[in-house]
Specification:
The structure holds two protein chains of two kinds. By secondary structure, chain A is an alpha/beta fold. Chain A is 47% helix and 11% strand. Chain A has 22 helices and 13 strands. Chain A has an eight-stranded mixed sheet, sandwiched between helices. In chain A, strands 9-13-12-10-11 form a five-stranded parallel sheet. Helices cover 11% and strands 30% of the residues of chain B. In chain B, a hairpin with a 2-residue loop joins strand 3 and strand 4. The N and C termini of chain B lie far apart (41 Å). Classes of the chains: A alpha/beta, B mainly beta. At the A-B interface, strand 5, strand 6, strand 7, strand 8 and helix 18 of A face strand 5, strand 6 and strand 7 of B. Bound molecules: zinc ion. Zinc ion binds next to helix 11 of chain A. Chain B: Pfam families: Urm1 (PF09138). Chain B: Belongs to the URM1 family.
Amino acid sequence: MSSTLIIDSLRKQISSCEAQLKDLRRQLAEAEQLRRQKQEKERLGETTVANDPLDHDMNYGIADAFRSEVYAALSPLAEENVMRRSWPLEKAEYKRYGRQLIMPEIGLQGQLRLKNASVLIVGVGGLGCPAAAYLAGAGVGKIGIIDGDVVEESNLHRQILHSTSRVGMSKVESAMVFLSSLNPNVQLTPHPSRLTPETAIPTMKDYDLVLDCTDTPASRYLISDTCILLSKPLVSASALRIDGQLVVLNNPPLPPGDPKGGPCYRCVFPKPPPPESVVSCGDGGILGPVVGVMGVLQALEALKVLTRTPEPPSLTIFSAHANPMFRTIRLRSRKPKCAACSSSATVTAEALTSGSLDYVQFCGAVNPVEALRPSERISAENYAKVRMGVNPFTGSENRREGHVLVDVRERVQFGICKLEGSVNVPFSEVARTPVTTTAAEVAQMPNRLDGDGDDRKEANAKESWVDELRRNPDKPIFVVCRLGNDSQVTVQKMKQLGLDNGGKRWIGDIKGGLRAWRESVDLEFPDY
Amino acid sequence: MSETKDGDTIPITVEFTGGLEMLFSNQRKHELKLPAKDESEEPANIAFLVRYLCENVMKDPRKDLFVLDDSVRPGILVLINDADWELEGEDMYEIQRRDNILFVSTLHGG
Ligand SMILES: [Zn+2]
């Protein structure tokens, strides 16, 4: 059955590639044909002008008084030749862009502005993919794309330029394939590497407008600073889970120190957020259409920046489950003491290119958790032996049900897959439990929270996991999570809560979490 | 939570977004009756609201994900009736009846 499916799918892929090839050959033939026609016309044009019989008539047969008038009337024809009058757009472009061209918001002038514009898209992920597609579709003349990553399977639910067959290809290359087939008129420039402080200025200097489609605070500060130094407007967006944010910065892009210029990222966020508060899409999750909507809005703002006069700065926030889903908030103007865009700016081109501005250090990083001693940790292989009823250290037989396995992933993840027999205590609940809570304090709690049923219920729920684990004071506790960080923090917290009975009960974590379990014990355990 | 007479409180709406709601019982919108005067009998301002939220509304012990050095932590925008608080006097802004105060945590994913 499955081999039939594979064969069918391969057949389909082959016929789709053949169709693509055919289309490319047709495009090539068309392009060659066009070039031939053009050359032919140019050749004919030259001769027609030279042999134009009216030339002589006009020079000799027209009275001086009329001559200039006649010349004026004929000159456009003489210059452009009736047969090959040059229109501002190519013939195919009128058709291709017709639906936006007829709108007063764009018109011929707007379309020409787009055609003459160059836009750099930093990051072709969830935001950059839809943004690039719409800008290429709209006929932006030059589009640069920069990204250092390769396409992964987990990108495909939202990064619409990439495809299953291009997993493993660089994102920039994959995006080029899609965009060049979408609109061959667009001149695409690939930058297949990560933007760094040293490369930012040379990479960004030739573009009119920059789209920040990246996913870290460090890159957001770097891009904004560079846009200020180069006087480029910046369209910045971000998304996580079901929320998105959008802001147009440095618009108008006036020099640093000019208070009439649009605010920059540092004006709005002078200090980076603490690294532990930064959640990535990989950890927090992201819904495809949510990040898609934000990327599409970036393309929309880009079209507005390129074709209209700037509007006062605002922040648009989107939340899929809110009503209304969109909210637009008036933003501040430039901050008088901004480190990047004020007259007292400390961010300079020299500082940037010399590498003395360390954005990663500025934003901080969450260090890998190394909270536990080796004796408090067990490898996935050894834990597998424990589950088989064998003590991995002494080789002696244990009672199978002689331990508790606590999985501290959030409930949804626990619902996706779990080790048999594990109990779920979400890490958010662990984190929420006050460490100072002693038995005596718990006893006092109902008094303190008297009159607030919700509070008491919640407090009780929080305590219940601790109580639950107190119930079997002799069974060792193994803690597991997705990657082996939260599990360490949990082990520490459990000890602070006194669950180890003053050291009599072993509490430890499974090194490397469920990822290590999959890699060294059970290859079939789902990887999400 | 000390009981206050209705006349001594200001009805306001406080909203959290960008993940901050997780620190506030996973609830985005809170209708509050904020004491009209702060600890030193001054009219309630944003700084007082932030303290009040920490002490009375936030159940999560990770206060540092909301405040840092007695102010809203970096990476959180405070919006007063849909305008950046910078336009309204930041944490000195005196809260009015039926004000809408929105705390937005910036997102970084993309
Ligand atoms: Zn600035």
